[in-house]
């Protein structure tokens, strides 16, 4: 069965060895908000998208920055942390928590670098 013959994608995606990317690769390559290619997003569409809609998409791969504690509540959208098309998103705590960092005195973070 060809991609175009999958009614509402409810029968499954990997039909006859085809993947989502086989049919939807052009969308992946053209997407700029966020830029899937530049950010190295996987080409396994189902990692973030459902088979019924492109949006909303969910990012579940935060291996280097686990979404725990205050990073999960209130329910946050990707844009809560990833503004400007994900360009320049901080990768260190101080990037978002500068006031707390500067106010810490034991030990004094600001003077210790």
Quick rundown:
By secondary structure, this protein is mainly α. Helix content is 19%, strand content 0%.
SSE arrangement:
Blueprint: H1 20-30, H2 98-103, H3 109-112
Describe the fold and architecture.
There is one protein chain. With 113 residues, the chain is mostly helical. It folds into 2 domains: 1-57, no CATH class; 62-113, no CATH class. The protein is 19% helix and 0% strand. The protein contains 3 helices and no strands. The chain has helices spanning 20-30, 98-103, 109-112. The longest helix has 11 residues, at 20-30.
Features of this protein?
single chain, 113 residues, mainly alpha, elongated
Number of DSSP-assigned strands: 0
Tally of individual helices: 3
Strand pairing plus helix content: what structural class? mainly alpha
Note poorly predicted spans: none
- What's the number of structural domains? 2
**Amount of beta strand:** under 5%
**Averaging pLDDT over every residue, what do you get?**
75
- Our Rg estimate from Cα atoms comes to 19 Å
Distance between the termini: 60 Å
Percent helix among the residues?
10-25%
How would you sum up the global shape? elongated
The largest pleated sheet is described as: none
| Order of helix and strand elements from N to C terminus | HHH
């Amino acid at each position: 069965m060809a991609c175009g013959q999958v009614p509402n994608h409810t029968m499954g995606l990997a039909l006859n060895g085809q993947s989502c990317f086989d049919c939807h690769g052009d969308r992946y390559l053209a997407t700029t908000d966020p830029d899937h290619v530049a950010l190295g997003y996987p080409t396994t569409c189902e990692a973030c998208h459902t088979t019924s809609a492109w949006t909303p998409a969910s990012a579940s791969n935060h291996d280097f920055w686990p979404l725990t504690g205050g990073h999960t509540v209130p329910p946050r959208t990707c844009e809560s942390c990833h503004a400007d098309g994900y360009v320049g998103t901080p990768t260190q705590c101080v990037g978002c928590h500068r006031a707390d960092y500067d106010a810490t005195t034991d030990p004094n973070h600001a003077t210790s670098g």
